[in-house]
Amino acid sequence: MTNKKWQIVWLLPLIWLSLFSGEKVGAQSVSYQTYKYGTSENSMASGYYARPAEVTVQNGQYLVTMTIKTKKALTAWPVTVLSVAGQSPSNVKKTKDSNFYYYAYSFYSQDLSKAVSSKIKIDVPGTYQATHQISFKFDQASLPSLKKASASQKTASQNSTSKEKTSQASQTNNSSSDAAVAKQVLDLEKEVKAKEKKLNKKEDTLAARAQSLNQRSQAVNAASQRNFFFLLFGGILVLGLFVLDILGLIYLMRKSKQQKEQ
Description:
Shape: rod-shaped
Subcellular location: Cell envelope
Protein name: NEAT domain-containing protein
GO cellular component, one term: cell envelope
Region (Disordered): 149-179
Helix content: 40-55%
Coiled coil: 185-216
């Protein structure tokens, strides 16, 4: 039992080391020194550089972000970077607050174990103008691991590729499904159009029949009106003749009476 306890005691440090001794991957705050170019002497520009630098790994190389911090008394952004690690600075951002001006910039490097050279320009109007060659030395213990980051990026790339393939397959299936739905919609539209044509034909037939009936009705009405006028005229004529007959009879009766009286 005692031996087992001692084994556990010895194993605990090993477990602790295995958990926390791995190299750091990703964004890291890394301290650095600013030297005169080609020497180990601090540069006069060292005081302008804010520490630490921010170091990340992108596409198998380091992306270093540094910031130059100057007092407002030296005017706006008196220190600018002309080149660093053999390249122009990227992602340059100029900001300020109530006391300082900040000049942030980035550069890429595949190896930060060696000194990184830089060329800067200092321009304080009416006081100091000069161009300086300086170099940076980064704390190696704080740097993220290129290998682990590259492996992580490779895995992420593979996952991304797998997701893209899955997405493409899904899009293909969706496209097939959409095509089937579109075909069904077209078939339904054709069926609806065919039914509409049949209904239109029926409506045309009914309209023609209604028009024919209307014409017949109008003809019958016209004939009825003509017959009515004829009957009315005949009745008036007969009535007139009847009245004339009565008047003639009355006239004859009066005339006969007058002759008898004479």
